[in-house]
Amino acid sequence: MLKTKFILILLFFSSFLLAQSARVKGVILDEANKPVKDVNVSFQDWSTQSNENGFYQLTIPSGVKSNLKFSHLSLKSAVIALELKPNEDYEFNIILKSSAEQLGEVVIVNNNKKRVEGIITISPKAIRLIPGANPGVENILKSLPGVNANNELSTQYAVRGGNYDENLVYVNEIEVYRPFLIRSGQQEGLSFTNTDLVQNVEFSSGGFQAKFGDKLSSVLDITYRKPTKFGATLDASFLGGGVSMDNVSKNQKWSAVTGVRYRDNSLLVKSQETETNFRPRFADAQTYVTFTPNTKWQFGFLGNISENRYDYKPLTRQTNFGTLTDPIALLVYYEGQEKDKYTTVFGALKSTYKINEDSNLKLITSMYHTVEQEYFDILGQYRLGEVNSNLGDENFGEVEYSRGIGSQLTHARNDLDALIFNAEVKGNHKKNDNQLDWGFKYTRESIRDRLREWEVIDSAGFSLNNPRLELPVNDQPYNPYTGPLVPYNNVRAINYTNINRFSGYAQWNRRSKWGEHDIFTNIGVRAHQWKVEGDNLNGKSQITVSPRAQFAIKPNWKNDMLFRISGGWYHQPPFYRELRDSLGMVRPNVKAQQSVHIVLGNDYSFKMWDRPFKLVSEVYYKKLTDVNPYTLDNVRIRYRAENNAEAYAQGIDMRLNGEFVPGTESWLSFGYLKTEENIDGRGDIARPTDQRLKFGVLFQDYVPNIPAMKIYLNLVYNTGLPGGSPSYADPYDYQQRLRDYRRADVGFSYVLTDRARAKEKDNWLRHFRDLAIGLEIFNMFNNQNAITNTWVRDVYSKRQYGVPNYLTSRVFSVKLSAKL
User: Residue 414's closest CA among 383, 372, 459, 476?
Assistant: First the structure.
């Protein structure tokens, strides 16, 4: 270890002492002041290309006078004479002029790549500014069509009828994971993604390419930035804060972006209907370090340490529900507490070798370790009764007549220790208008899990037995009960599970012409082999093959339109949580769920009010087989671990985005979805994520006479989800829905200074690149949204009441943001 550190230190300092080179860097823009990607920048035999943000950096020999050339397919070339001193850093920004007259009326450039693939690109600035109870990338995703989430405390989301386990998340091409034991949004804490470190965010809600992994629903691909100079940011609010820092060595070979965050959700959760002593605390530290020794090699390290603590001591709860003519209330008095803890450590190494201008290789290794505990003993004693609805009565709103009296004691001692290792090699090769991408990956998952969980329900003095067990009928007080007393729910299991996986992909991309029209083609295939082993487990080896394809055409029309079709066979080999049934036992031979997925899309770019707009429309259909049915309680998913269902999902998504206000991006989104499943051939019923209608608005504005005053609005409306069913009940008997989800978060921000005005300041503000203070209002209209039901039994009618569990009410917070 000491030897390795000595070598790294020696390499670091030798780059300062022996530097005989210089660096030129900058940003390339077009005439509209938009960054230009894939501009070829060359100096004699040295060359590079600009990235998504138009940034380029090139190491060149010092003391040599020659030409620095900028060339691009659709823009005019530019040349400057350059001679730099040893170790000199020279910044040169340039605007390339259009050369559209040389290529015809419609010009297709590489910036259309994401458009062709049906990928949505989200501005990192919008991610940081748009308000939300749980801000970040996922907060923005929830306003997109096809993405549904009915829980502002959760960072999880469902896409086009899938569940929370069906989404891929990558950071710098490295797959990241979520905790296992999370059962409610209150416990989740921070998203893995630190928005202060983000450079680029791309999202695909279906029909994605073979290079992405084996999931059924979506891909979120995030890139952390590689800084070019020192910088720092600070964010603070009543809910917590974060600090991030950009660092670069003098020779530009080393760079690091680092962030530390802390969050306390007490302000949000104390606005709920349950009175508690409650302090959920979440913290993490994250860094991405890059080392570029020369033009051929680049090394990166992604590290993350996080700890979530959830201490919960409920006291009382009153929930009013029912109708105007028959108002009902649930009163609960609690004893006991819950103490949960989730600690995760994640580290990944990524190396990139540039063979030549047209080929490169990448090696990625990662290790994820999580230690989780879920401990609670909570006794709830409840009264279910009729509410006094007489407005003039002094007891208005109080329970006057009890329909049900009972108690519930829940206990858990759940521990999980998971270690996941990945090693992957991948490459891409270009030749003319063709590109070949390939990759091979090995994954080992080692999970140690102890599950100890039981529940005792007493209704009006009579203990309720487990409905799954064949026990004598308990019809007290009419007849004495002579059978055994058992918990209503009792889950006990110890699982030591190992899963070895091998996966790979190959895909071919081609850009061509059909007459005067531009054609884009992608054809690929994935393969995945896995086997589940462990104590008393010896699963069979299973293999899936997933062919996928995309085709797009951009007609040579006056209107800027693009049509695409994509889809294929998608498989999701089971992860550990999908192998564990409702009794906690691992079933090693659960098959991969599979989906035939087809997406038809249209992308129309146009100008309105002399400003750019885009309308994207997609129609999709998914036919699913070997489905593993599950129940959804808050964000906790419990699978049957049986491939005993079929399902389908169909719908349409639309999004109109553009500059509704000059200089700012906003959008309107609409989605229609219908998804049903057929379990054991009994007929179609709504799946737990059957969100029929969705409307989303993300809007940015400023006060015309006070441009420093900014306004941000995040508005979501979702129709209600199926409300679930009591434990062990038949889902075919419980198909009622929750209320519609309506949520409006608004933020007001006053910019004290920004980059454009910082140099004009002659006071303390000149030290800041950006400084703003603002007010955030969460759930502005104070809507009562429900995430799930608590099921309470009426002893007289034997009826089960679904009592809504409401989410957060209106909350105010102050926020401060600063950049150095």
Answer: 372
